[in-house]
Design brief:
The protein has 9 helices and 5 strands, in the order E-H-E-H-H-H-H-E-E-H-H-H-E-H. By secondary structure, it is of the alpha/beta class. The N and C termini lie close together (about 5 Å).
Length: about 200
């Protein structure tokens, strides 16, 4: 089984690329979805988050208020590190479990959609790193439009991650997503044909 580590930055277009890869026959493991699952109310990670950050980060239905938590962790790196220590081991465990299940089901290619693949040093679980790249101004505009963030909120979230330019050094495949979807699709199809399975 060939394991693609799909990464990029916030609003770089990873979901566009992952949906194209699914069409081509890959099995997708979405780390963001898993991250939401592990913090469901009363799960161990949820309990640790409430213990560390308090009831203030909860909605009335007891789910995590991602905006409130985001406002805390994007302003304080020690708080972000604390949240990472709570969630990352649990996310990685589930990612590996889902990959094993995909292999048992006969999938030849699995895509790990992991925004922080490089930052969390999970390169050991993939065969190749595919980076979805956009320039920072495009990223800012897309993030403001998609999430309704102000310029400074969008900038704060982009700066909290390793820059896409830095990530280029780790990439085996670069998908330039600055243009239209047709152009991106063509690049993904070409890279797909080059996979050594």
């Amino acid at each position: 089984m060939y394991r693609i580590g799909l990464t990029g930055g916030i609003a770089s277009g990873k979901s566009t690329v992952s949906s194209i890869l699914i069409e081509l026959g890959a099995f997708l493991i979405d780390a963001d979805k898993i991250a939401r699952l592990v913090v469901q109310p009363f799960q161990p990670a949820w309990q640790d988050i409430v213990k560390q950050f308090g009831q203030q980060v909860l909605h009335t239905d007891q789910t995590i208020d991602r905006d409130k938590l985001g406002n805390i962790i994007f302003k304080d790196t020690s708080m972000r590190a604390l949240l990472d220590d709570i969630t990352h081991p649990r996310i990685k465990q589930e990612v590996i479990k889902q990959a094993q299940e995909a292999e048992e089901r006969g999938y030849a290619v699995v895509v790990f959609d992991i925004p922080l693949l490089i930052e969390v040093k999970w390169l050991d679980i993939v065969d190749a790193v595919w980076l979805v790249y956009v320039d920072e101004s495009t990223q800012l505009i897309r993030l403001m439009q998609r999430n309704g963030y102000t310029y400074s909120q969008a900038q704060e979230r982009i700066r909290a991650q390793m820059s896409l330019t830095e990530k280029l050094a780790y990439a085996d495949v670069v998908i330039d997503n600055n243009q239209d979807v047709a152009n991106t699709r063509q690049q993904v199809a070409t890279a797909w044909k080059n996979i050594s399975r």
